[in-house]
Amino acid sequence: QMPRGNLETVNHRALLLAQLRKWLDSLKFREAFECMRKLRINLNLIYDHNPKVFLENIETFITQMNSIDHINLFLTELKEEDTTCSMYPRPEGSPIQLQPVSGQKKVDVVCDALRSTMETMDPNKFCLSILTAHVKKTEPELEVALQKVHELRENPREAPGAVSAEEALKFLLFLVNVNDLYEHSLGTYDFDLVLMVAEKSQKDPKEYLPFLNMLKSLEPNYQRFTIDKHLKRYRKALLHLSKCGPEHFPEALRLVREQKLYSEALRLFAANDAQYKALSCAYAEHLVEQQQAEQAGLLLWRCGEFVGALQAFAGSSSWRNAICVAQQIPLPPDQLALLARDLAEKLTEQRRYSEAALLLDQYAKDCEEAILALITGAVWEEALRLIYMHDRQDITETNLKPALFDAVSSHTVFLEAQVATFARHRARLAVVREQKEKARLDMLDEDGPDCPDAELYSEASSVMTGSKYSHSNSRISSRSSKNRRKAERKKLSLKEGSPMEERALMYALGEIVTTVDKMREEVHNLLKALVLFQLDRQAEKLQQTFEEALQTTEAALPEVWPDGIQNNNAPLTGPNSTANSITASFQQQQQKPAASQQDVEVMAPPRMRSGVKWKLTILK
Amino acid sequence: QMPRGNLETVNHRALLLAQLRKWLDSLKFREAFECMRKLRINLNLIYDHNPKVFLENIETFITQMNSIDHINLFLTELKEEDTTCSMYPRPEGSPIQLQPVSGQKKVDVVCDALRSTMETMDPNKFCLSILTAHVKKTEPELEVALQKVHELRENPREAPGAVSAEEALKFLLFLVNVNDLYEHSLGTYDFDLVLMVAEKSQKDPKEYLPFLNMLKSLEPNYQRFTIDKHLKRYRKALLHLSKCGPEHFPEALRLVREQKLYSEALRLFAANDAQYKALSCAYAEHLVEQQQAEQAGLLLWRCGEFVGALQAFAGSSSWRNAICVAQQIPLPPDQLALLARDLAEKLTEQRRYSEAALLLDQYAKDCEEAILALITGAVWEEALRLIYMHDRQDITETNLKPALFDAVSSHTVFLEAQVATFARHRARLAVVREQKEKARLDMLDEDGPDCPDAELYSEASSVMTGSKYSHSNSRISSRSSKNRRKAERKKLSLKEGSPMEERALMYALGEIVTTVDKMREEVHNLLKALVLFQLDRQAEKLQQTFEEALQTTEAALPEVWPDGIQNNNAPLTGPNSTANSITASFQQQQQKPAASQQDVEVMAPPRMRSGVKWKLTILK
Predict the structure, then answer these.
(1) A163, B152, B409, B481: which could join B165 in a potential S-S bond, CB 3.0 to 4.6 Å?
(2) Helix, strand, coil distribution of chain A in percent, nearest 5
(3) Taking CA atoms, what residue in B is nearest to A329?
């Protein structure tokens, strides 16, 4: 017995914890437990103090407790929290206890460890604690617990101290809500168990007996299906229903549609079943509604539903598959040509000119349209290939050359406009940054050095730099990231003086850099076509304009995105800064929530693909 | 007159400069000039003190100088350097003088401004100063100066104080090296001028007269060509030679080859000339040597050299052009098929399977080979398209399906290996960083706080963080950037304890992220093919493996590339840091040379293309 009054008067928590640690280190669980219970120390500490030692000495623990009630008390008090981190921090300098990294949760680890030890030691004696261990897991194992109760009823234990099924059930009802227990008993499909629980609960037999009797009258698989459905365990329900024979298939199909259990359902039937095909069609319908027509097409095609598959593929511009299915049907040549034209039209709308041309050439047999599509899409070499393949050099003069002239002039105009906008934004950015820097230095100056709460300034300056806005953004993170990004961009107003103007300018500049950089291939191909048709002068002009655009943008990168990313977090050093102000400016940087993805996208310098060689050496 | 002795004894530079500034501000150029000359103050200050005011008052300046010698002295002392930044810094608080931003050099601006003013005021009186202004430009305008001398000789000035051609030439010879002047006089093609200079120089007439006489005997264009060639002005030489008629073309071609003046030469001849064709062939030969066979092909094709063009295109895998030229020749069908096979083989080596298949299918008329190429290249949908187009479903069973099985298993193995390597590198990176942090804190601790030269530590720590290596890199910046990058990577040894290990690990981790991210499209296409052939189980496994790989790598990004870029420049704050040490660590950051491009590439987190949807919803 502890010298009770004594400890209570001193009541020095540090002393108390030191004593507890000593007991736990020497495996005196009993003493520790008694003391903790009396002084209301959280029992989790028994485990948290040294998880490894505890798990290695569970039998000792159980033997020392020597009481179902105490073990149950310990089990029910278990929480995920590590008390040595929260309530009872370790004294400084003590070795850090590594958590056994198993990926499992602490509560589950302790419950499972205690239960299995008790089961080895004496399953009868520890029966109620074993039930507690099942019930207290983060995902309560109610059905296992119920099963054990049921076993007790079937085979009552003779051993001294053994618990009866009655007692065990009562105990469970004390731990768990009665309705939960009833539902879970149903889930075992064991009517004896259900009745047992129902009787113990204060449920009205008039309520549950008719239902149970109805269930009993059903064919076993259908019975299980009905129970599963009642318990909203739809996957299990579907599994059982699928075993009930084809006459129940319509019901299964309904269930699949209602609960969107399409992939699960497909796995339950053989691929050559009629039912498999029906499910595939239902799934395909659903997928089309979900804008997944291509996947719908694949499902339909593989189960032989060619017409449906063709529709689905055509609807999703999955033109290769559409054409394959059409040829498998097989569609007569004129209809195939029509299909090819339809598909080509859609692809043209999506600016997929090469693919459109292939369809027009090979399936609609219309090489002229194909060549024109390629010319529209600026796919010069491929256009030439078809021109020579079909011996249609006339199109070179009538369409290809004029298109080259158009392309070179529109590219030049476009590039010049981009460069002009770039210069404007860049100049404005310099002004905005200078103003911001000035505003911040003014703030620091006002109160002069040795100002003890410099944190205030850094916070104030963070408002200026827009981090307040990014905070408010985090509130709407539940929206889809696409929407969020859109919202983000809306905030990025280029209007002079807008709070996010700097960021808006950087974003706009980045867009220009990316746009210009993306044109390398296009310009390269255009230059080659121009040279081929002896349009060297135009080619030279374009090459120069593009070169200048690339150089202008590339040269500005270090200025617009200075040294890494956080341009507006330049440290507050300077003649008037103090250790405090410097440190504060750092803490601000460090406390800032990790930059979100779209922040990084705006703030990181765009990468230019200087590896993509586009220039022609034959042009000066 | 200045109270000379007085100033010399006091000789207080600040006082002197203050006085000079006062004079210059009140446009007393004469006083300023005299004083500066006597006390050896750099005359550039007259302009540098306030460029705008000087340029607006040039006439006043010239009038006050009132001496050719003084003006010449000022002109000859002009240097690009801004003396108010170097020798005579402005007093603090004085308004900063904005340099007139014209893109022109200061020396040229001043020379041109003085010259044009003098030409308006009195070209005769200021003749020698005008010549000085021509000669002192950063690109001396010797020919213009010579031309002016020649004019004086033709039309001697009657005005009082006017200079004779003799005097002017003497003056020029005093300013410029005689040989330079002689060469430049030749460049005017004006033999009178040449003789005038030659006579004034101490050159031996036996030396130059035969040469001049020979030149005089030549046809004018050929004469100019000979002079240009003598002066190594090859472009001009070519221009004049091109006007000498076809009998001189071989000589022109030789010149073009020797001096690589191909593009210039092409511009001098009409596109339908025989000479244009010859030049094109020569240029093409050169381009092929320079690994620019495709451009060579374009030049040959457009001037009708089809066979040469075909070779050039075939050599550069420019297969579309090659085929077009072949059909223009036209090659007989069997040879065309052979060409297509050759091209396809090369493309296959370059993993350009789709293009190889097109050649095999459409030009070699071998659909089986085409389909096999597509299967090898994992271009599943296109393979299927050809299978259906040519009604060769047998290949589906014999080749396509086995290839799908291979692909899914090799992808899975590959992804698992990447993930394993990633985990290993990531764990090691954590260790390396911890060690580095510990080493740095230890260093700070050793001397404790209040250590006045904390800069030493930050420098020492910069050695640890590898910036010493990046310094040594800057020395080899003359190498091509590709070589530099290679060298950089070689330094990045993954060996444990290597000085750049952290960087090497980050680089390796980045490579894995990029590799995995790049597989999105490939995996997506493979998944669709697997589903089509009812290989759902394999597809699900692959989808899971890939999903895990993406998640593992994406989740590690913030840890591997923490908050922006400069992970190893975390500020030195902590219980033992001082204002000095914090500031020092900053200065280190700021003084670091701007991160070079390849640094950024290693240090910036790779971007994952989360916008590329690859997952199939029909797979769980």
Answers:
(1) B152
(2) 70, 0, 30
(3) B388
What's the CA gap between A617 and B3, in Å, rounded? Answer: 67
B472 part of a folded domain: yes
- CA A75 to chain B, closest CA, distance in angstroms equals 35
Q: Which two tokens stand for residue A290?
A: 């979900």
Confidence at B254, pLDDT banded by 50, 70, 90: very high
Asked whether the CA dihedral A582, A587, A593, A597 is positive or negative, the reply is positive
3-state secondary structure of A308: helix
Query: Cβ B298–A528 below 8 Å, yes or no?
Result: yes
**Interface subset of A 258-297, CB within 8 angstroms of B:** 262-264, 266-267, 271, 283, 287, 290, 292, 294-295
Check residue B50 and report its DSSP letter.
-
In this structure, what are the phi and psi dihedrals at residue A352, rounded to the nearest 5 degrees? -100, 70
Mean pLDDT over each residue of chain B, to the nearest integer: 84
The CB-side HSE value for A393 (13 A sphere, CA atoms) comes to 5
Chains A and B: how many Cβ contacts under 8 Å? 137
* ipTM of the complex, rounded to two decimals: 0.75
Q: What is the DSSP letter of A189?
A: T
Contact B618 A283 (CB under 8 A): yes
Distance CA B618, CA A533 (A): 51
Residue A35: what residue type?
C
* Cα–chain center distance at A500: 29
What is d(CA B412, CA A264) in angstroms, rounded to the nearest whole number? Answer: 23
Domain-located, residue A348: no
Long-range pairs, A465-469, Cβ under 8 A, ≥24:
A465/A436, A465/A502, A465/A568, A465/A569, A466/A499, A466/A500, A466/A502, A466/A503, A466/A568, A467/A592, A469/A499, A469/A500
Tens of pLDDT, residue by residue over A346-397, are 999 999 999 999 999 999 999 999 999 999 999 999 999 999 999 999 999 9
CA distance A20 to chain B (A): 32
Nearest CA in chain A to B603: A564
What sign for the dihedral angle of Cα B263, B267, B269, B274?
positive
With 0-12 / 13-18 / 19 or more C-beta atoms within 10 angstroms meaning exposed / middle / buried, residue B438 is: exposed
**Shortest alpha-carbon distance between residue B82 and chain A (Å):** 24
How many Å apart are CA A173 and CA A185, to the nearest integer? 12
**In which domain, by residue range, is A20 found?**
4-228
Q: What is the pLDDT of residues B432-476, one digit of tens each?
A: 998 888 888 888 776 555 544 444 444 344 334 433 333 333 333
Phi, psi of B213, deg, nearest 5: -65, -40
DSSP assignment of B130-183:
HHHHHHTSSS--HHHHHHHHHHHHHS---STTPPPHHHHHHHHHHHS-HHHHHH
Number of domains into which chain A is organized = 2
Sign, CA torsion B507/B512/B513/B515: positive
Closest CA to B595 of A599, A585, A557, A510: A557
- Distance between alpha carbon B279 and the CA centroid of its chain, in Å? 29
Tokens for A448, please give them.
């002069």
DSSP A351-373: T-HHHHHHHHHHTS--HHHHHHH
Phi, psi values for residue A582, rounded to 5°: -65, -50
Q: What pLDDT is attached to residue B606?
A: 87
**pLDDT value of residue B4:** 55
Q: Is-contact B60 B99, C-beta < 8 A?
A: no
Domain assignment present for B571 = yes
Q: Is position B506 within any domain?
A: yes
Radius of gyration over every alpha carbon of chain B, rounded to an integer in angstroms:
38
Distance CA B461, CA B443 (A): 9
Q: Interior CA angle at A280 toward A274 and A282, to 5°? A: 105
Point out the domain boundary residue: A213, A228, A243: A228
Name chain B contacts of A382, Cβ cutoff 8 Å.
320
